[in-house]
Amino acid sequence: MKVNKIAIIGGGNLGTAIAKGLLSNGLLKPSQITITRRRTSLLADFADKGVVVTKDNKAAAKGADIVFLGIKPYQLEEVVKEITTELAENTLLISLATGVSSELIQSYCGLSLPIFRAMPNTAIEIGESMTCISAYNATEEQEEKVLKLFSEMGQALIIPEELMAASTVLAACGIAYAMRFIRAATQGGIEIGFGSKLALQISAQTIKGAADLLIQKGTHPEDEIDKVTTPRGVTISGLNEMEHQGFSSSLIKGLLTSFNKIENGK
């Protein structure tokens, strides 16, 4: 994939995770990546590796083949208008902001540019993200280019734009929900006798193994659950108690709460 320069406007948690993903996979040389942040001192580790670090969004966008907008939704209009003069007609704009449509982003820049919305999760920095992407005013070749870029850093899908809010909750917020489950399992492990580090190691690897089973075998979770639940066994007793305490319903309610926050802006 031919890319000479990528600009990441906004070197926060997600922006820097993407930069780490690009670097760890050898997709680009450090000098081909530019990251912006007001407090550039927070990006010193990247500067030491040869990544271009600057406060100047316009300088970052100039000559970039792909511009990631890793900023807050309320900052989008100001920043897009700021960098518009530096964008070429074939520059790919990729917004990481939640809840702002591609059509609205295009109205900010006043140009008919290919615009993508993407929602990776922070596992992108180790090449294990689940990234959902929507495309607007883009050719099939441009869609393939963006899909390939994210596929090098995990799994990626092109979805209808109307599903971007839902994908944000399930994949991006979802990684925090998974972390919370692992933390709770670790705390339970301590309760039954393990030290904290060992409990965390066991819990994290168990969750990784469960996920890999589903991904590699293509089975349904209940199929795998059935294999470890026996009549009057300890597993089914634990699962039933979790359900009595609202395990599944609380998770579903959490997903819906996050989704409604995006949809309603409250």
TrEMBL record:
Enzyme Commission (EC) number: 1.5.1.2
Annotated metabolic or biological route of this protein: Amino-acid biosynthesis; L-proline biosynthesis; L-proline from L-glutamate 5-semialdehyde: step 1/1
Subcellular location: Cytoplasm
Domain Pyrroline-5-carboxylate reductase dimerisation intervals: 161-261
Keyword Ribosomal protein: no
InterPro entries recorded: 6-PGluconate_DH-like_C_sf, NAD(P)-bd_dom_sf, P5C_Rdtase_cat_N, P5CR_dimer, Pyrroline-COOH_reductase
Catalytic activity from the UniProt record: L-proline + NADP(+) = (S)-1-pyrroline-5-carboxylate + NADPH + 2 H(+); L-proline + NAD(+) = (S)-1-pyrroline-5-carboxylate + NADH + 2 H(+)
A family per Pfam: P5CR_dimer
Keywords on record: Amino-acid biosynthesis, Cytoplasm, NADP, Oxidoreductase, Proline biosynthesis
SUPFAM superfamilies registered for this protein in UniProt: 6-phosphogluconate dehydrogenase C-terminal domain-like (SSF48179), NAD(P)-binding Rossmann-fold domains (SSF51735)
Domain Pyrroline-5-carboxylate reductase catalytic N-terminal: residue ranges: 5-98
Main localization (coarse): cytoplasm
Gene Ontology MF term list: pyrroline-5-carboxylate reductase activity
Xref: NCBIfam families: proC
Protein role: Catalyzes the reduction of 1-pyrroline-5-carboxylate (PCA) to L-proline.
Annotated family: Belongs to the pyrroline-5-carboxylate reductase family.
Protein name: Pyrroline-5-carboxylate reductase
